[in-house]
Amino acid sequence: MTERQGHSAPAAGGGTGRWLFVLAGLLILIGLAFAAWVLIDSLNPSAEISGPTTRVDLATIPPGGRETVTWKGNIPIFILHRTPEQIAAARADDSAPMKFPEADRDRVQRAEWLVVVPRCWRGFLPKGQAPGEPRGRWGGWYCRQHGDLYDLSGRLRTAWGEANFAVPPYSFEDDRWLIIGEGP
Ligand code: FES
């Protein structure tokens, strides 16, 4: 009798402890999920995501501005609102030596909007979107992993990379809204 009482008291306490442990775990999971949602949402300040398409409000990106949005949940897209000088610089380099030559006109639907998937060849996200980040000699983007440089058309300008930035399917709903994920 004495022995059973001695065992039953800790068992009740252990049950309460387990519930507290489970509750604490749930609260941590909810906190992590919320933090992840805030992080993902912060990548899309001007975008509305709906299934396979991302709708971007171009009015929020001034000339020379750069915006990063996500497409299909986790694919980063770089958008550059190119100035006349940036367009001219990209086009002046059309015949420059490149590993994967492409005319700038073939990479954009509207000269002032560059829309690209910025995956570097090992999956790293190049720098250059945020003010103050290194952009390299051609003013586009820089990947610090192996030093690749990309120009204002998203073309690879150094020798050791594996591809230009890809151009995703996209279309312009009008002069304000860009739809990523639907071709013209
Ligand atoms: S992964 Fe970007 S330069 Fe190598």
Care to describe what's here?
The protein has 184 residues and is of the alpha+beta class. The chain has 2 domains: 14-44; 54-180, Rieske Iron-sulfur Protein (3-layer Sandwich), CATH 2.102.10. The chain is 27% helix and 20% strand. Strands 1-2-9-8 form a 4-stranded antiparallel beta sheet, with no helix packed on it. Strand 3 and strand 4 (75-81) form a beta hairpin. The longest helix is centred in the first third of the chain and has 41 residues, at 2-42. It is globular and about 45 Å long. FE2/S2 (inorganic) cluster binds at residues 120-122, 124, 143, 145-148, 161.
Q: Looking at CATH, which topology of the largest domain would you report?
A: Rieske Iron-sulfur Protein
How much β-strand is present in the residues?
Answer: 15-25%
Q: Tell me the structural class.
A: alpha+beta
Which shape, going by the Cα principal axes? globular
For the largest sheet, list the strands in their spatial order: 1-2-9-8
Helix content: 25-40%
Strand tally: 9
Distance between the termini: 82 Å
Instruction: Give the ligands present.
Output: FE2/S2 (inorganic) cluster
**Helix-strand topology string:** HEEEEHEEEEE
What's the name of the CATH homologous superfamily of the largest domain?
Rieske [2Fe-2S] iron-sulphur domain
What is the CATH top level name of the largest domain? Mainly Beta
| Domains (count) | 2
Stretches with pLDDT under 50, minimum 5 residues:
1-13, 30-42
Average the pLDDT over all residues and give the rounded result.
Answer: 83
